[in-house]
């Protein structure tokens, strides 16, 4: 019972203390609110926000400017406009807004609407917006010594000279120039709050990396006026994140480019060599149009655009070479024989270098050996033909002799030289000569056909060797171009 009573007394005393503290705070707040109302009335009773708040009009009013970059909202390369979200802090001293804080219960600062006090007309010089997008009319913080701090957010659209020569591996420098629009340097002097823009609250952009925001003060003499006009220029250093463009524009282009040399590897009889080159060319044209739509129309061609143009030129050349090689492949009987230099250089040496062989050939078979084998085969065919004709005539003579009476070849000379036998022999010889001529005609046609086929086979092999040669040449060109743009 004694412990519970003590607990109740402790809780009661704690609640009493809390209640007393809350009452004291309310009384203090009401007291400060009373003095704030009195101060507000006393300060603005005879105050005008239309005039520059200095006691000596010959002296310049110092305004400190500090910029905090919060976010890069957009970078329009085609129209060369940078849209950024900024926090702008301006600090100056108002000679007519001072008070003794002891007269107002120690009140050292109050917050007032910014349109009630004088404000410097500091604007963004390189603004690229049709509508007014200046700082928002937020409250200002007024201290007892006359110091005014005005913090306001602003969404600015500024002109930015975009250099897309190394797109998508480019760096950009965009300037934000702030200065007074009507006051010259003898009336308002602008100072930098920091040596650079504040990036502590910067929200990362998905496309751009911010590498700094250095500031510099400039004093410029304009042609319209003889007075100096100071300004502060913040240079925003941006670097493009190239991963998106590498995976969506560059790598597909490289893969499509490697299809162009494979057109030389297709068989000439497939009928798809030229159509493959045309299809690859059309695909690259689509990618080129996509890049051109996002780039500003300037004389500087982007790096990826140069790569596309070089690749399209290479594919055009490969398609033209393919047409030329197909004409060589389809050389027929009316074509001239392969020149001797082509036989030695292309059919003998280059075919071994690029491993182009016919059926039954190997890397040790030379062109001269093949010609010797062809000549030897022709001689064997000719000798076989002569032997066949001789055996045919001999058989026919034996047959005619065997048909004589009693089967004896040495019959009576009278029978042998009879008119009937002489006529039969003349008929047999005439028939034999006709057959011989027919056989010779067939053999000549066969030899001509074989020579024509051999000539066509040589031209086809020349075309095949040239196909293989240009395939490796274009593979090397595509590889070197791809490495150069990635580096």
**Largest beta-sheet characterization:** 6 strands, mixed
Unreliable sequence segments:
14-31, 384-417
| Subunit organisation of the chains | single chain
The chain-level structural class is alpha+beta
Residue fraction in strands? 15-25%
Q: Strands across the major sheet, in which order?
A: 3-5-6-2-1-8
Number of helical segments with 4 or more residues: 9
Helix content: 40-55%
SSE arrangement, N to C: HEEEEEEEEEEEHHHHHHHH
Instruction: Work out the number of β strands.
Output: 11
How would you describe the shape?
A: rod-shaped
- Report the span from N to C terminus: 87 Å
Question: Rounded to an integer, what's the Rg over CA atoms?
Answer: 51 Å
- What is the mean pLDDT? 77
Give your account of this protein's structure:
This protein has helices at 2-43, 243-257, 259-262, 273-294, 303-329, 340-353, 367-402, 413-416, 419-486; strands spanning 61-76, 81-93, 109-113, 122-124, 139-143, 147-159, 171-180, 188-192, 208-210, 215-221, 228-240. It has 9 helices and 11 strands. The chain is rod-shaped. The two termini are 87 Å apart. The strands form 2 sheets. The protein has a 6-stranded mixed sheet, with no helix packed on it. Strands 4, 7, 9, 10 and 11 form a 5-stranded antiparallel sheet that branches. It is α+β, with helices and mostly antiparallel strands.
């Amino acid at each position: 019972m004694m412990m519970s009573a003590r607990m109740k007394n402790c809780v009661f005393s704690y609640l009493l203390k809390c209640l007393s503290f809350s009452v004291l705070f309310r009384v203090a707040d009401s007291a400060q609110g009373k003095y704030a109302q009195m101060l507000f009335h006393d300060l603005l009773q005879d105050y005008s926000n239309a005039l520059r708040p200095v006691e000596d009009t010959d002296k310049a009013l110092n305004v400190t400017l500090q910029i905090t970059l919060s976010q890069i909202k957009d970078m329009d390369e085609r129209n060369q406009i940078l849209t950024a979200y900024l926090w702008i802090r301006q600090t100056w001293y108002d000679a007519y807004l001072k008070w003794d804080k002891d007269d107002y219960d120690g009140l050292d600062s109050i917050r007032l609407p910014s349109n009630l006090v004088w404000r410097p007309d500091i604007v963004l010089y390189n603004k690229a917006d049709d509508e007014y997008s200046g700082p928002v009319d937020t409250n200002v913080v007024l201290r007892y010594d006359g110091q005014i701090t005005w913090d306001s957010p602003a969404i600015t659209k500024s002109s930015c000279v975009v250099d897309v020569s190394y797109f998508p591996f480019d760096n950009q420098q965009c300037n934000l120039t702030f200065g007074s629009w009507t006051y010259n340097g003898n009336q308002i002097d602008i100072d930098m709050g920091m040596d650079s823009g504040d990036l502590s609250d910067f929200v990362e952009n998905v496309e751009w990396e911010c590498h700094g925001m250095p500031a510099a003060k400039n004093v410029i003499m304009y042609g319209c006026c003889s007075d100096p006009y100071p300004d502060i220029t913040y240079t925003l250093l941006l670097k493009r994140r190239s991963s998106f463009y590498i995976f969506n524009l560059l790598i597909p282009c490289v893969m499509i480019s490697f299809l162009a040399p494979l057109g030389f590897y297709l068989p000439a009889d497939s009928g798809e060599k030229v159509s493959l080159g045309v299809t690859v060319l059309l695909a690259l044209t689509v990618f080129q149009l996509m890049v051109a739509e996002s780039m500003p129309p300037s004389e500087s061609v982007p790096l990826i655009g140069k790569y596309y143009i070089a690749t399209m030129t290479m594919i055009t050349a490969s398609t033209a070479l393919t047409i030329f090689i197909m004409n060589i492949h389809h050389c027929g009987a009316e074509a001239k024989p392969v020149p001797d230099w082509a036989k030695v250089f292309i059919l003998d040496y280059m075919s071994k270098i690029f491993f182009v062989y016919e059926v039954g050939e190997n890397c040790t078979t030379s062109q001269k050996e093949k010609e010797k084998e062809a000549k030897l085969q022709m001689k064997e065919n000719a000798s076989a033909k002569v032997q066949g004709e001789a055996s045919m005539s001999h058989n026919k003579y034996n047959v005619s002799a065997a048909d004589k009476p009693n089967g004896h070849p040495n019959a009576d000379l009278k029978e042998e030289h009879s008119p009937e036998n002489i006529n039969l022999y003349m008929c047999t010889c005439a028939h034999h000569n006709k057959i011989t001529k027919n056989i010779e005609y067939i053999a000549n046609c066969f030899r001509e056909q074989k020579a024509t086929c051999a000539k066509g086979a040589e031209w086809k092999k020349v075309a095949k060797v040239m196909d293989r040669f240009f395939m490796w040449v274009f593979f090397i060109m595509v590889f070197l171009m791809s490495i150069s743009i990635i580096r």
